[in-house]
Amino acid sequence: MGKHIDDAVGQGKEAFGKATGDRRTEAEGKVDQTKAKAEDAADKFKDKAEDLKDKAEGAFESAGEKIRDAFKRD
């Protein structure tokens, strides 16, 4: 399931568990919500890592161009 669906299902399970006194269902709901939050955090981390990689590649390319330009002038 998608992380948003896991979160919604988890909220429903937790609410149902609380309403019926079913602690196991309530706990399963909390686990589903935690899983969705962890997946969301992992996706954000992955996006940030890709952004940093792109910035680093750009910086290395720029530095390489500057070095090549410096040698062309001499």
Describe the structure.
Helix 1 (3-20) runs antiparallel to helix 2. The longest helix is centred in the middle third of the chain and has 51 residues, at 23-73. 93% of the residues lie in helices and 0% in strands. It has one domain (3-73). It is mainly alpha-helical.
The helix/strand class is mainly alpha
Query: How far apart lie the N and C ends?
Result: 61 Å
Write down the domain tally. 1
- Total strand segments: 0
Q: Tally the helices.
A: 2
Give the integer mean of the pLDDT values.
91
Strand content: under 5%
Major sheet characteristics? none
Radius of gyration: 24 Å
Q: List the helices and strands in order.
A: HH
Oligomer: single chain
Given as residue ranges, the uncertain stretches (5+ residues, pLDDT < 50) are: none
Overall form? rod-shaped
- Residues in helices, as a percent range: over 70%
Brief synopsis:
The chain has 74 residues and is mainly α. The chain is 93% helix and 0% strand. The chain has helices at residues 3-20, 23-73.
Topology:
Layout: H1 3-20, H2 23-73
Helix pairs in contact: 1-2
Features:
74 residues; mainly alpha; 93% helix; rod-shaped
